[in-house]
Amino acid sequence: MAAGGGIDPIHQFHIAPIVELKPFGIDLSFTNSTLWMVIVLAVVSAIMIYGSSQRSVVPGRLQSLAEMAYEFVASTMTGVMGKDGLKFFPFVFSLFMFVLASNLLGLIPGSFTVTSQIIVTAALALLVICIVVIYGVVKHGSHFFGLFVPSGVPGWLLPFMVLIEAVSFLSRPVSLSLRLFGNMLAGHIALKVFGGFVVALLGSGAVLSYAIAPLPLLLAVALTALEVLVAVLQAYVFAILTCVYLNDALHPGH
Amino acid sequence: MDPVAAKFIGAGLASLGMGLAAIGVGTIFGNFLSGALRNPSAADGQFPRAFIGAALAEGLGIFAFVVALVLLFVV
C-alpha cells in the first residue's frame, strides 16, 4: 500500500529484534519496542526520583513537574472515586505516566511509539479490567455482580438490561485498548502520509511541485502540534476511564 | 466486482463512521461549552465527565478507523 510517493506509512510500526533471544522456541527477543519501553521507564523514573529527591519548599523545575503530575492524578482520582479511591493511586499514576511518556516520546522523529502496538494497550487494558474484577469480587463478593442489575427497571425488561450491561462491561477492555491504539496509529500514519507528500512533490521534478511542497510540510507541523495534544489527552482519558472502572469495583450497586 | 476495488470501497465506507463519531464528539463539547458559559462556576466540576463522554463517543469512531485499516493493510 504505497501512499504518498512510495513511502510505506505502516513501516514505522514494524518491530525489529535488536538482540535475538529464543530459548526453548519462545521468542523473547529484545526488540525496538522493548528498547523504547525501557527508555520510557527510565525517563519516568528519572523525572519522579530526581524530582522528589530535593524536597525543597520552593520547588525547582523538575520538582514542580513531578508535583504537578502527582497533584493532577490525585485530584482526578478523588473527583471520580472519592477519598478511598486513593488506595489505587500507585497503579493509576504508573499507568498514566507510562502512557503519557510513551505517547510523547513516540512523537520524536525516528522513535518508536510503544502505545501504537495493540498488544501493549490490550495488556494494559486487561490489567485494569482484571484488577477491577478481582478487587470487586474479593471485596464485595456476589454484591459486585449487582453492577449488572440496574435498579428501578421493570421485571420484564430486567433480563435484557442485564444482558446489555454484561456486554457493555465485557466490551470495556476492547474499547479501552482500541481507543489508545487507534489514536496513536491514526496520528502517526497521518504524519507519515503528509511527510510522504513532501518527498513525492520534491521528487517529481516539476517546477510547480517545488512551489506547493511547503504546504504539506506546514500541515505536518500543525499535525504534530495536534498530536502532542492528542498524546496528553489520550493518557488523561486512559487514566480517567481506569478511575471510572475502578470506581465500579469500589462502590458497586446502583 | 474486483475484490481489490471492493476492499478499497469498503475502507472508504468504514471511514464514514469516523465522521459520524466526529458529530457525536462535537455535540458533547458544544453542549458542554454552552452549559459552561451559562454557569461557569459549575464547569470545572463537569470537565472530566465531558471528557469521558467524548472518549466513549470517539472510541466508536476509532473502531470504524480500525475496520478501515484492517481492510487496507491486513485482509
Write a structural description.
The complex is a heterodimer of chains A (254) and B (75). Chain A has 254 residues and is mostly helical. In chain A, 68% of the residues lie in helices and 2% in strands. Chain A is built from 8 helices and 2 strands, in the order ββαααααααα. Chain A has helices at 32-53, 61-81, 89-105, 118-140, 158-170, 172-204, 207-212, 214-250; strands at 17-19, 30-31. In chain A, strands 1-2 form a two-stranded antiparallel sheet. The longest helix of chain A has 37 residues, at 214-250. Mean pLDDT of chain A is 86; it is low at 1-5. Chain B has one domain: F1F0 ATP synthase subunit C (F1FO ATP Synthase, Up-down Bundle). Chain B has 2 helices and no strands. Chain B has helices at 3-38, 40-74. In chain B, α1 (3-38) runs antiparallel to α2.
Write the SSE topology:
The complex is a heterodimer of chains A (254) and B (75).
Chain A: E1 17-19, E2 30-31, H1 32-53, H2 61-81, H3 89-105, H4 118-140, H5 158-170, H6 172-204, H7 207-212, H8 214-250
Antiparallel strand pairs in A: 1-2
Helix pairs in contact in A: 1-2, 1-3, 2-3, 2-8, 3-8, 4-6, 4-8, 6-8
Chain B: H1 3-38, H2 40-74
Helix pairs in contact in B: 1-2
